[in-house]
C-alpha cells in the first residue's frame, strides 16, 4: 500500500496537489454534502474530491465544489475511474453492498457511515478488503462524530475489553431527556419529529433497531465478537411513562435507552433496552441528541466517550478522519482474531418494576409472593400519593436476579385481575 501523509494546511489554496489521493462520494445527501464541503475547502492537502455520484444527479449540483469534479448518476463511472478512496454515504443495504464489494475487489478502500450495511455485512466486506489489500473503514457508522470506533480499535487496543455499552440513538435520548422534564412520550416524539431528529416513521429508533445495528458493530470492534442482529433482544422506549422518571428520581437515577454487549463466561450478552442509570453516570448526563459509549477493560477499567451522535457535519468529520487515516496509513492494519460466541439475552441485575393496578388490599403481598416463588428478593416498594385508585402506579425494586426468573414471575403476576396494564421492567445499570 502506498504511504503518504495528509497535511492540514490552514492557508492551502484550493488547488489540489499533484500527489493528492482522489476521492469519490456515493450519495450527496446530508452527510455526503458535508463531506464534500470539508474536502472542497481545500484545507486537507492530499485529499481531492474528484467524483460525486447520486441518482438524478443534476438536482444535486452545487457551485462550491471544484468545477473539475465529475457529477454522475452512472455507478460505472465510479467503478471504472481512477479514484483511490470511495466514501459511501447513500445508506441502505442494497445496492450499497454490491457497489462497496466491487470497489473493494478492485483494490480501492471504502469509507462508509452505513450502520445497517456494516452490522449485516461488515465481516464479509472487511474480509474482501483484506484479500484485496485495501481497507473498509466505518468510523462514522456508530455515534456519528464521536471517534469511538477508532478509539476502541486503536486507542484501547492494548486492553482486553469485557463490555461496551452506551446511548447510541440521539432520537431516543432526545425523547427520554424531554420525558425526564415531565413531557409525555407522544409529545416528546412529536417535538423530535418537528425538529427533524425523528423520521416520520420512527420505528427503527423507538423499537431499538438503530441502536441494535450499532451494538453489533461495537461488539465486533470492542469485543472482537460476531453477533447477528436477530440475536439481540430489543425493548422499545414507548413503554416508559413520565411517572417512571419520578420514581427513578427517588432512587437517584434517570432512564436512558442503553445498548449493552458484555462477555460473560463463554457467552456474549447483548440487549437494547431502556434502563435506570444513576444520575452521577455519564449516561445520565447525556442530554438531547448526544451519544455516550462506555468501554470496560480488563486492565484499564472504564473509559467514556461522548459527543454529537448525528448531524451532517459531525458525521462528516468521522468520515474525513477515516480518509485521513487511509491516506496516512504507513502499514497494513493489524488484523485481530474474531470469535463467534453464543449470544445470551439473560442478564443478572437488580430491577425496577412498575405496576399499574386497580387498588385493593393484598396487591403488594401477591406480587411479593410471586417474586419469592422464583427466589427473587424485594428491595423496596415506592408509592406516590395523588393517583387515581383505579389506575394506581407503584414501583417495586428487586435485588440482583436472573432476567429469565424475573420474567417467569412477571408472567404469573400478569394473570392477576388487579393489573391494569403489563408491568414495566427496567434493569438498573451498574450493579
Ligand atoms: N445524517 C446523519 O446524521 C447520519 C449520522 C450517522 C450515520 N449516517 C449514515 O450515513 C448515511 C447517509 O445518511 P444521510 O443522512 O446523508 O442520508 P440522506 O440525506 O438520505 O442522503 C443519501 C443520499 O444518497 C442518495 N442515494 C440513496 N440511495 C441511492 C441509490 N440507490 N442510488 C443513488 N443515490 C442514492 C440519496 O439520493 P435522493 O436524494 O434521491 O434520495 C441522497 O442524496 C446512512 O447510511 C446513514 O445511516 C447518517
Structure description:
Helix content is 33%, strand content 28%. The chain has 431 residues and is of the alpha/beta class. Strand 6 (85-88), helix 3 and strand 7 form a beta-alpha-beta unit. The protein has helices at residues 30-40, 75-79, 96-105, 115-131, 148-155, 170-180, 185-194, 203-206, 209-223, 242-250, 282-285, 312-328, 363-373, 403-413, and strands spanning 7-8, 21-26, 44-45, 47-53, 70-72, 85-88, 109-112, 136-137, 161-167, 225-226, 233-234, 253-264, 267-278, 290-297, 301-308, 339-340, 343-344, 348-357, 378-382, 392-402, 419-427. The chain folds into 3 domains: 7-141, Rossmann fold (3-Layer(aba) Sandwich); 148-309, Dihydrodipicolinate Reductase, domain 2 (2-Layer Sandwich); 348-427, Alpha-Beta Plaits, CATH 3.30.70. Bound molecules: NADP nicotinamide-adenine-dinucleotide phosphate (NAP). Residues 27-32, 54-56, 89-92, 95, 113-115, 140, 144, 310-312, 315 line the site of NADP nicotinamide-adenine-dinucleotide phosphate (NAP). NADP nicotinamide-adenine-dinucleotide phosphate is lined by residues 27-32, 54-56, 89-92, 95, 113-115, 140, 144, 310-312, 315.
